[in-house]
Design goal:
- The chain has about 180 residues and is α/β, with parallel strands linked by helices.
- It has six helices and five strands; from the N terminus they run βαβαβαβαβαα.
- The strands form two sheets. A three-stranded parallel β-sheet has the order 1-2-3, with helices on both faces. The protein has a two-stranded parallel ribbon with strand order 4-5.
- Strand 2, helix 2 and strand 3 form a beta-alpha-beta unit.
- The two termini are about 30 Å apart.
- Bound molecules: coenzyme A (COA).
C-alpha cells in the first residue's frame, strides 16, 4: 500500500475497488460519473491469488494510469493503487470511508449487498455507493471481453483503444 493519500479534510474522496483485469468501458463509465460526485477517486486493484490474471498488477496499474491521464490534467483526481487483504483495512489506511461499486443487473445485487453489509459490519463508518451501469455496459465483464478477443471477435466497443491493443498483444504472445 502506498503511504500517500489523496484524501484530506477539505475534499471528498472515494475508493473504487475491483480486479480490473482489464478495466473496461463499464469501469471507466463508473470512474467518470464518480468524479461528478467526489473530488478524488482511488482505484484499488485487488491482488487476488484466487484468479489467474491476464495482466499483472503492475501492468494493470500502468494501463489504468495511462487511460486516466485525461482526468488528471489540471490536478490529480484519480490515483491507482493495489491492495491485498481486507478492503476495509485499505480504506482505513487511505482515510477514506466511501466505496463506489457499479451495479450492472439485478443479478449483481445479492453479491454486492453481501459485500457492502460485511464491510459495514467490519468498519461502521464505511458507506458503499452504487452507480447503475449504463445500459450499453450492462452485459460487459472483463472475462467476457477477454473471451471474445481470444475467439477473434471485435472488442472495440468494450474497451478503450490502449487496452484493446494491450489485450491483443498479450493474446498474440500466447497468453
Ligand atoms: N462494468 C463492467 N464490468 C463490471 C462492472 C462494470 N460497472 N462492475 C463489475 N464488473 C465485472 C468485472 O469486470 C469483473 O469481471 P470478471 O469476473 O470477468 O473479472 C466482475 O464484474 C467482478 O467485478 P470486480 O469489480 O472485479 O469484483 P471482484 O468480485 O473481483 O472484487 C472486491 C471485488 C475487490 C471489491 C472484493 O473482492 C474485495 O473487497 N476483496 C477484498 C477482500 C475483502 O475485503 N473481503 C471482505 C468483503 S466481502
Amino acid at each position: 500500500m502506498n503511504s500517500k493519500s489523496l484524501s484530506d479534510n477539505s475534499s471528498s474522496s472515494a475508493i473504487f475497488p475491483g480486479s480490473f483485469d482489464p478495466m473496461t468501458n463499464g469501469h471507466f463509465d463508473i470512474i467518470e460519473r464518480s468524479l461528478t460526485l467526489f473530488d478524488t477517486l482511488t482505484i484499488a486493484i485487488l491482488e487476488n491469488s484466487q484468479k489467474v490474471p491476464l495482466f499483472s498488477v503492475a501492468e494493470r496499474i500502468a494501463l489504468i494510469e495511462a487511460e486516466c491521464r485525461r482526468f488528471n490534467e489540471k490536478r490529480v483526481r484519480v490515483q491507482v493503487r493495489s491492495f491485498s487483504g481486507l478492503l476495509v483495512d485499505f480504506a482505513k489506511h487511505e482515510q477514506c470511508h466511501i466505496v463506489v461499486r457499479g451495479l450492472r443487473a439485478i443479478s449483481d445485487y445479492d453479491y454486492e449487498a453481501q459485500m457492502a453489509l460485511m464491510n459495514k459490519s467490519l468498519y461502521r463508518d464505511l458507506e458503499t455507493v452504487f452507480l447503475i451501469a449504463r445500459e450499453e455496459n450492462s452485459y460487459i465483464s472483463s472475462s467476457i471481453v477477454k473471451q471474445v478477443a481470444l475467439l477473434r471477435g471485435d472488442i472495440t466497443k468494450f474497451v478503450p483503444p490502449g487496452i484493446k491493443a494491450a489485450i491483443l498483444q498479450k493474446l498474440s504472445q500466447g497468453a
